[in-house]
Amino acid sequence: MTAKKLFIKTYGCQMNVYDSERMAEAMGGEGYEVTDRPDDADMILLNTCHIREKAAEKVYSELGRYKGLKAARPDLKIGVAGCVAQAEGEEIMKRQPMVDLVVGPQSYHRLPELTARTHNGAKAIDTDFPEEDKFAHLKGRSKAKRAPAAFLTVQEGCDKFCAFCVVPYTRGAEVSRPADRVVAEARDLVERGVREITLLGQNVNAYHGHEGGLAGLIRALDKIDGLARIRYTTSHPNDMDEALIAAHGDCEKLMPYLHLPVQAGSDRVLKRMNRQHTAESYLRLIERLRAVRPDLHMSGDFIVGFPEETEEDFRDTLSLIEAVEYGSAFSFKYSERPGTPAAERPQVPEDEKDDRLQRLQALLTKQQRALQDAMVGREVQVLFEKPGRLPGQMVGKSEYLHAVHVESSDLAAGDLARIRIASSGPNSLKGVGLGA
Ligand code: 5AD
Ligand code: SF4
Predict the structure, then answer these.
(1) I need a surface site. Which of 70, 87, 249, 318 has the fewest CB within 10 A?
(2) Ligand 2 site, residue 168, Cβ cutoff 6 A
């Protein structure tokens, strides 16, 4: 039997990247091979994101592009997975009748059986939050060799209910995977060539699948021979406990880079966002982290133009950014999400949001560039991932997640090497090897 072909397009966060891998593996058991070309696929699956309106709308324009393919080959199956599937369910099929299958992020272990149900034009939909653990029901991971850096989902869902956010609705309540299963999956990844693991969760530092919390899990993973680096993302300031802060000080494999979203720097806005912390408590937390790990690079998420945000509120965000000095950051204009409390409130005009986003990003870019430029002359450790664009070049990531290019004929993907940074470009660093 010739293999059927599956094309998966992934939107949104790293958890979707992980989920897409797992869906591909689940469909591998049904005789599907992954293709990177939609036009020769037997099944097209969009793994979607609902976090902002733009992301959600992209799904429909993408589906529109496949109309011709579906008309020419009615047996082509088209599926929508991920958070838009969860949020909009059968509405998707009403808007785009060519969609055969809709599956939410908590039920994609049922993808093979759902696909089987789509014979002869029948539709299948599953947006349950099932009792069973999808991870326990997914087939074992394939044994194929892997790239050196991998994601591993350890926690899903969120109980925080920030007033702007759809995650508690699309991904459900916080659930943690048991530590022994995470450790087993990590060992398996390492056997397949992985040297760096990023633990994923919508609220990963609320992880409770180990009695020692996320710090306990990190220390358990630290013992795996061959695993060189551990990262985790994304976190809430209120879940940074003492044990996790201490791990940043003494756990060598835990990288000195922390994504800790604050969203805004004005206490008034933070309160309206239901963040349950203040700008000051966030700054004190970073002080404590930097006391144990002075070279920690901070990353964050920011929303500008949250309902009723004033120019003064916005300036508080700029001041907070000045105080932290971010090594990297993601920033967004507030986007009204149906069903969330903030969507009902007085909105900031679009041109105001544009203006604030520009000013915020100018400051963040300046900081990022300054921290990146400050790496010149320093020695870093790079995990090489793939060849660079120029011949003879390899590219990898430093401890601080900077991309580093090195010209070398004897470096291979998966190598960890000491590198001296020679220069800093717009998006990456250049370095030279220092030998073993
Ligand atoms: N509008 C804009 N940005 C949002 N985010 C979450 N919800 C919204 C929204 N409604 C951002 C937050 C979050 C990141 C993943 O996406 O900054 O941390
Ligand atoms: Fe959304 Fe993060 Fe707030 Fe949870 S903590 S509601 S995922 S922004």
Answers:
(1) 249
(2) yes
